[in-house]
From TrEMBL:
One of its GO terms (molecular function) is acyltransferase activity, transferring groups other than amino-acyl groups. Keywords: Acyltransferase, Transferase. It comes from Rhizobium setariae. InterPro entries: Acyl_CoA_acyltransferase, Bact_Acetyltransf, GNAT_dom. Residues 25-179 form the N-acetyltransferase domain. It comes from the Bacteria. The keyword Cell cycle does not apply. This is GNAT family N-acetyltransferase.
Amino acid sequence: MANTQSLTIERFPARDIETHLTELAGLLQACVEDGASVNFVLPYTLEEAKAFWRSKVLPRLPDGGLVVLVARSEGRIAGSVQLDHDTPPNQPHRADIKKLLVHPDFQRRGIGRKLMGEIERVAVEMGRTLLTLDTRTGDKGEPLYKSCGFEVAGIIPGYSRDARSDHYDPATFMYKALRAG
């Protein structure tokens, strides 16, 4: 798909998820431990991260309702992002971006931006004209999403529990209108 210097981004089918399960679980675990707002709380074990990929991602790949892109750099999985396009019949134009993950060792190198650009390209190829996502308000991903053209639709207070405490954080819901491919 995309290749910039030593970075490659590719679509991962179920067999690749299975082959790289431990590394993908390590990516998720590292991001959760680094404070990423991706729906998990600490402590978060490698086994729990493997269970997420096995139970929430793998079953959705064969039917095509979910696309997983993986970024590799320096021989390692550096990041991933998901596009959930299994939408209700009255929303065939929309898809949700989920679980943008960049390993802490690879942050601040533009990998998140490249993953966002590539997942947007995939959405356009699929005929989707509206992307949505949510993030913890004030999270380090929020400025990235805004710089990628996402607009704030609204903020819900007390939406999700902080990964490190019993505090409930607000969530910012965002959207981006796309041009049809």
